[in-house]
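Dear all,

This email documents one entry for the complex benchmark we are building for the journal club exercise. For each entry we list the sequence lines for every component of the assembly. Then comes the predicted three-dimensional structure of the complex as a C-alpha cell string, followed by one or two observations. Please use this as the template for your own entries, and keep the labels exactly as they appear.
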Amino acid sequence: MSVHDATTKAALPAEAKNQFLHDAAEHVRDIDHRSFVRKALGGYYVTRDSQKAKYRDWEHARDAAALAKWSAVNRLDELLPLFVTNFEAGGGIVHFARDAQEARTIIVDLVRASNAKAIIKSKCMTTEEIHLNDALEKEGYVVVESDLGEFIQQLRGEPPYHFVFPCMHVRRGEISDLFQKHLGTEPTQSPEELTMIARRYMRQLYVDADVGITGANFLVAETGQISITENEGNARLTAALPRVHIALSGIEKVVASLADLAVLLPMLATAGTGQPMTCYNTLYSGPQKNDEPDGPREMHLVLLDNARTAILADPEQRDSLHCIRCGACLNVCPIFKNVGGFTYGTTYQGPIGSVITPHLRGLSDWNHLSSASSLCGACTDACPVRIDIHHHLLHNRRNAVRASPKRLEHIGHQLFAFVAARPWLFAAGGKLFRWSLGFLKKIRPPLLRQWLETRDLPPAPPKSFRQLWKERS
Amino acid sequence: MQIDLFIPCFVDQMTPGVGLAVTRVLERLGHTVEFRPAQTCCGQPSFNSGYWDEARSVAIRALDVFEGAQAVVGPSGSCVAMMRVFYPQLLAGTPHETRALDLASKTFEFSEFLVEKLGVTDVGARFPHSVTYHDGCHGLRELRIQQAPRQLLRAVKDLELIECDEAESCCGFGGLFSVKFPMISTAMAEVKGGSLARTECEYIVSSDPTCQLQLDGWFSKKKMKPRTIHLAEVLAGGDA
Amino acid sequence: MSVKASSAKDVVLARVREALQVPAPPPHLKSHDLQEAAGISNARPAGAVGTFKPLSIAPLDVARPWLPEGGQTPEERMHILCDNLKRLKAEFHRACHLQAAAELIFSIARQRDWQRVAYHRHELVDPVASALHCATVCIGEPASFDKRALEQCDAGITACESLVAQTGSILVSSATCGGRSLSILPPVHIVIAHIDQIVATLEDALHDAKVRHAGRMPSMLSFITGPSRTGDIERILVLGAHGPKELIVVLVGESP
C-alpha cells in the first residue's frame, strides 16, 4: 500500500524490527522515564475505575458498544453511501481518498483553492497517519496544532508518544524550556501557567486562520453528521472561526444511528480518560446555515481508505476496525508502559497499533510488534468495543509464518512436533536436557543466554514426573 | 471420580513435585488419579510462534491421548488454556473440531477443578506462612479464574493471604517472548516482582509453573528473598 | 465534485463491497441472552461463513439498563445533574424566576468588572443581557458576525437545548444557541436554562434534538460537559485549555 512512501522508519526490511529492539532496550534502562509514565497513568486508573463504577454494569455496556460497531462495520457497504448522501444534503462536500497520497493531494488542493494563509488544526491521528503537516509545510503553509499536547509535540519536532495523551512523557520543566525557547515566555513549573501560555498564544491564531482541519470520531449514517470528541475546546474553535473546515476521517468510523452515540460517547470517554463524557462532543452536519450567525462557509470531508478495506477483507481481524481510538489498551499494556510510545515507530502505538500496523504498512516489516507481546490479554479486557486484540497478535504471527516462514525456526518447530509425537523420544530428550542443563548454562547457547543475562535458572531435578509416576505405581 | 492428569512438559521435566502435589491433593479427596504416559506437550510454543500446522499436529495427538477421559486436570492455567481455548480455534473446520470441543469441555485448571467442579474449598491443608497470589494471565483472562485459588488459600489453616498492588499485571514470561524480547520481559518481571516483593510475604503462590520460573529467576538474580510455590504444593502441604 | 474524486469513491465503495463478501464472526459478548436477542451466535469460531444479518435489537436498547443513571423523576434528575455539574467543576445556580437569574448574573458581572458580554436573542437570555451594567454584543444582530469583537468579550451568555442529568452535559446548537463561537470563544460561558429542559439521558437529548430539528439539523450540535480542560501536562487537570475556563449554569424555575 502506498503508505510506505510516507514512512521513513522502515525503509529497509528488518530495519523497523532492529530499531524496535534497539529502542526497547534503551527505553527499559531508563528507569526514571518508566516510572514517570507509570505515575502519569496512576491517576487515569483511579478516575477510570470510579467512572466505570457509575455504570450499572460496564461489561454489558461493552457488549452494546461492541454490537454497535460490529453491525456498522459489517454493513459498511450500505451505511457508507447512506452517510455520504445525508452528509452532502447538509451542504458539505465529500472527497474519497484511496490512500495517503491521494488524501494529501486532496487536502493540499483544497487549502490552495481557499487562498489560505494560516491553517489551524485540531488533534487528529488520521492526519498523522498520512503525514499531512509535512505535505502542507512543503507547500509553504504554516500549520499550527492547537491541541496542547500536539502543540508541545509539534514544537519538540516529535510525533505523538501516545495517540490520546501525545506528550505524556514530557516533564513540565521541559515544556517550560520549550515555551521559553519558541514563544519567549518566562519559565514556570506550573501546569496551569503553561496551559495558559498556550491558550494565549493560540487565541489570535483561531481568529486569523482561514482553514481549520479536524478529524472525526464517528460518522453518523442516519443523519449525515460527523462527531468530534475533545476536551480542550480547540476542535470547537477550529470548526467555528475559519472560513473553511476540512475534516479527515477513516471510512470505518461510520455508525448507523444517532442513538448509537448515546452508548459510544460516554464509553469512549470513560475508557479513554476516565471521564463521564469528554468536555465537548460535537456533531457537524455541514457549513454554516443561512439562519446561523457564524461558522465556516465551506465544509469538506475527506474519507480515507488507506488499507482499511484490506482489514475489512479479513473477517478474522475485521473487528480491529471497531477501534474508537480511546487508548485504553495502551494504558493497561505492560509492553507500552515499559518500552514507551516511540519505540513502536508507528502512528498508532500499543496493542491496537501492533494489530493494525502490519495491515497498514506490511506484515513482513511489522510483525515483530505482534511478537513483542507476552499475550497477557490486558488490552482485550480494557477494550470498550471488545476487539479481540491479543488474539489478533497470534493471528498476525500465524499469517507472517504462512507468508514467509523462517527456515531455521520452521525446522525447530517441525522437530518439536516430531518429538512431541513420540513419548519415548520426548522422555529421552527431556532426560538429555536435564542432564546437560548445567553444562548448557556454562556455554550459554543463544536463547538460553538471553534468559541468563537477567534471570537465573534453577538446576534440573534428577527425575522427571513420568519417571516418578512409574516408580510410584 | 476418575481424573486424568495433564502434566505439561515443563512440569514433567523441571517441576515434577507439582504433579505429585496435585496427585496428593486429589487422592486425599478420595478420587482416582491417572497419568497417561503417552502425553507430551500441548503445542503452545509452536502455536504462539505462529507455526500452527506444527501445533495442530501436536494438538490432534493430545486429543488421541486423552480420548475417553472423564476429567482432565492440569496444574497450569496457560497449558489448560491452550487445550480449552485454543484447540477448538486451531482445529475449527477440521474433522477434529468436535473432539477438540469435547476435550475443551472436560479440561480444567487445578484450582478451578477443585472449586467449580468438585465444590471444595477446604482441602484440609496447613501452611503457617504469609503468602501473596500471582495471577497467571492465561488463567486470569483466558479461563477467567480469579476467585478459586484465593478461596482455596483462605481455607488453608494458619495461612495469611495478602494482595499485591499489581495483582493483574503480567510477570513477563510469555513463553518464547521471554528470550526473544528479554529486555521487555525482564522489565515486566521487575514491575510484577517488585510489587509482589513489597507485600513482604514469605511465599508467592502461583498456578503457573512457568510464571514461577520467570519470577524466581529474577528474584534469584537480584538476590531478593521471596520465593514462589505452586498452589498445589501449598494445598498438599502439612496436613492439619 | 471532480471526476478523479468520484472515481476514488467508486473504487473505495467497490473495495468495501468486495471485502464484505465473507461475513465476520460476532464479537465475544458477555451476555448469552443478548446473543440470542441480537440474533447472533458465537457457536462457531472465527472464520465461519454465513451471511450477515442486521441486528434484531438496537445497541442502545441493549445498553440502556447498564449505562449510568439519569433519574426516573424530575427530582432525581435534578439531583443527579447538580451532582454531576459539581464534579465537573461547573458553577451551578438555581433561580426561581428569570428576574432572579438576571440579578444573579448582574452581580457576578459587576463583581468581576466585566466590560463586555456577548449573548444571543432568546427569551431566557434577553432579560439577563438587558439587565447588565456593561456593554453587550448581540450575536446574529446585525447578521454579519464579528469574531474579533466576540474574542474581546469577558463572557458569553446562551440558552441551551437540553441538560443531561446522566452525564452533566449541556446540549447547545448553532441554530438555537447563538451559533458556534458564542459558547466556546469567551473565557466564561453562562447558560440560562429552564428546569423543564433537564432530560435524563444522552439518548433523550439526542432524540429530542432529532425531533426538534426534524429533517434540518443545525450545522452544529454540541454536548458541553464542564468547562474546557486538559491533562496534557503530566496528566494534571487544568481548566480552561482553549474553551471557557468557567461554565456557569443557571436553572430557572420552581423546584420540580
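Observations: Chain C is about 30% helix and 20% strand. Chain C touches chain B through five residues (CB under 8 Å).
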